[in-house]
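4.2 Preliminary Data

To establish feasibility before requesting continued support, the project team ran the inverse folding procedure on a target of 405 residues. The structure was first converted into the token representation described in Section 3, and no sequence information of any kind was made available to the design step. The complete token record follows.
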């Protein structure tokens, strides 16, 4: 374990070393993969104490696993990088981003109301709109980039238990003021959960801005290579206990597998390097598209034309992320032609991989959303989402320009 009391290491260095707790008994440089379903007890007494939570013995990998716990420590260290006394926080790894998000929402909002950002990842929106009501959770959707609208919603629903936002909205790229939202929500007795997938802790650390819970689809930037599905939550240990999150995860069965956790740990080691390139490339691509005669509008927080550019400049560090959205003057027809003609860019959903991915939210990732809500949130039929990779930016730009004709 690195002694940070002697020197505050950079985020880049922390991402390489995060998660280390003790030396492996065999001196392994990388954390071992504990690919086992169950663990052996020395005797009945040890087993009984383990089930009572009175020792650190492992029991069963659905409850906890050393490789998974290494990942949990690593993600927690990255998300709490700017917090003094960060040892009060805990990371929890899940089998997918949606497992993390839904478990988090259920554990804190059952029997209450959720105020959610209007533009969200399609499956999150679908869960809140269709499944959550069956669990006693009501939801209203609002443009959380407008703090006045959020305040009105909190007054309208005094039973609100949770305000749910994305640090960068998928796919409209809207930015919400996490600090102001957290202060307002807390004044009304509500918690704040921020899905930080698009920004990653390299660009934004919501816990330092007052958020209570951070969620991730670790499938994306934290993994970085499109080779694993995973999710995570980071929150105070006290809240984990109060909301019975370990019990929810145990009984809903959403924990990460050890092989997936191991892949994610290795992905984290290059997070800072990858995010730097993603961000630099995305800015160049966004500027190129914005000046193209076929493009109607580009949404990227780094552009001065973005409605929350000033806010993004205040709360984001090291750039503005690797994802942008745009609409062509020819609408969906022109966007469809573009997506069918690209050669370097890959027509696929997801983001955070080293290669550039392009997709159509309305018919793909956000097709499960309520159509009225989707259109109201600005996810139009002509919107194209581009997750910029780490290839040479000029090659990405050339591919888009040749596809645009």
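Position-by-position output of the design step:
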């Amino acid at each position: 374990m690195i002694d940070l009391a002697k020197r505050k290491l950079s985020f880049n260095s922390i991402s390489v070393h995060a998660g280390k707790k003790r030396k492996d008994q065999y001196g392994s440089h990388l954390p071992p993969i504990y690919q086992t379903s169950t663990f052996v007890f020395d005797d009945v007494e040890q087993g009984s104490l383990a089930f009572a939570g009175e020792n650190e013995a492992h029991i069963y990998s659905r409850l906890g696993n050393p490789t998974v716990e290494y990942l949990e420590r690593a993600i927690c260290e990255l998300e709490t990088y700017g917090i003094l006394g960060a040892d009060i926080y805990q990371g929890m790894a899940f089998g997918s981003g949606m497992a993390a998000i839904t478990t988090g929402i259920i554990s804190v909002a059952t029997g209450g109301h959720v105020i959610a950002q209007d533009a969200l990842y399609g499956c999150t929106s679908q869960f809140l709109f269709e499944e959550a009501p069956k669990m006693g959770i009501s939801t209203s959707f609002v443009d959380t980039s407008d703090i006045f609208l959020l305040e009105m919603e909190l007054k309208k629903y005094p039973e609100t238990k949770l305000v749910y936002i994305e640090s960068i909205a998928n796919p409209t790229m809207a930015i919400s003021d996490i600090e102001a939202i957290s202060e307002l929500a807390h004044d009304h007795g509500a918690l704040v959960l921020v899905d930080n997938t698009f920004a990653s802790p390299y660009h934004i650390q919501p816990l330092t801005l007052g958020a209570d819970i951070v969620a991730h689809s670790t499938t994306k930037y934290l993994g970085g290579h499109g080779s694993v599905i995973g999710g995570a939550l980071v929150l105070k240990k006290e809240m984990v206990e109060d909301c019975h999150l370990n019990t929810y995860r145990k009984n809903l069965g959403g924990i990460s597998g050890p092989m997936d956790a191991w892949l994610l740990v290795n992905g984290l080691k290059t997070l800072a390097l990858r995010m730097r390139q993603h961000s630099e490339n995305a800015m160049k691509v966004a500027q190129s598209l914005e000046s193209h005669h076929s493009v109607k509008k580009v949404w990227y927080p780094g552009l001065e034309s973005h409605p929350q550019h000033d806010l993004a400049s205040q709360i984001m560090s090291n750039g503005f992320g690797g994802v942008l959205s745009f609409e062509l003057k020819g609408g969906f027809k022109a966007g469809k032609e573009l997506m069918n003609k690209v050669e370097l860019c890959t027509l696929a959903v997801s983001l955070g991989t080293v290669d550039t991915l392009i997709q159509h939210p309305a018919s793909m990732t956000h097709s499960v959303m309520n159509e009225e809500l989707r259109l109201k949130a600005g996810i139009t039929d002509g919107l194209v989402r581009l997750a910029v990779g780490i290839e040479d930016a000029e090659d990405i730009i050339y591919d888009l320009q040749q596809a645009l004709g």
